[in-house]
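QA checklist item 7 of 12: single-chain prediction sanity check.
[x] sequence parsed
[x] length recorded as 283
[x] structure emitted
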Amino acid sequence: MKLQSFKISIVVFATLIMLQPVLAAETTKPDTVNPVETSVNELLTVRDDTSLSEEDKLLKEFELRKKILSEVLTLSIDEVAKLTAKVDALPEFAENSREKELRDEFKAVLETYTAYYTEQSKKLAELTKIDETKSLAQEIKDYRDNIYNPQIQKIVNFVLLFYNDDVLKIANTRLDKISADIKKLEKLGYIKAGIFASELKLAAETLSAARALLEEAKSAVLTTPKPEEETALETRATPTEEKEAQPPIEPNKLVEDSLNKVKSTYDIFLQISKDLRKLLGIK
């Protein structure tokens, strides 16, 4: 009798442990003031300071503009370094795979961004006039808007594919474990057979939908672009088709929707945990 009670306790303990969400949020740090924002506020204060002479005001504005640009460049270099680390942390890909081709391409691109921002930092140190700082600021902004940001979004999408893939694998493993433990409790007669059938079915269907969204995102990210002329011929539509055609969903939106479905699955797991505790009389 003691042995049976011990086995039951082990099953219950395992079930409740497996029902705890795996997607724990990253430790949140206290809000810190953005150094660029602080410096911009200082610049605005200087501009409105009537106690300063025009000469002093111009000097302080020049110094603050250089400081702002320096902080922007430092943050940009740090941003590239963090993304490079995430790309490096991806799994090994087959030698001739599209995944490896993209990773190598993205790593090379990130190196050019580091080189660019480093070069601008050197250029900034040599500036002696306000107009020069304004010109450099505009150049950096144009580079970020037209070159950096579009490519960074592609790299982030690529990284998220494999993060989401791992999350889905963990969630499916968890579902299998929960299902197995519930079956054990049913066989032991501690809960009614099939009492969680609808919840487990919904969890499985939600994870299946999450997988479908992820595969759609993978297809969009990993498909090799076709030559422009060939693409134009294939996508040429009749007037009626043009009206009915819908713009493709962006990969980052597909990944986001997939992750949200995984989150919904863990909500189901948590509800099962609460209901199971009530049935077993565990507080």
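[x] summary fact logged: Residues 220 and 248 are 9 Å apart (CA to CA).
[ ] second reviewer sign-off
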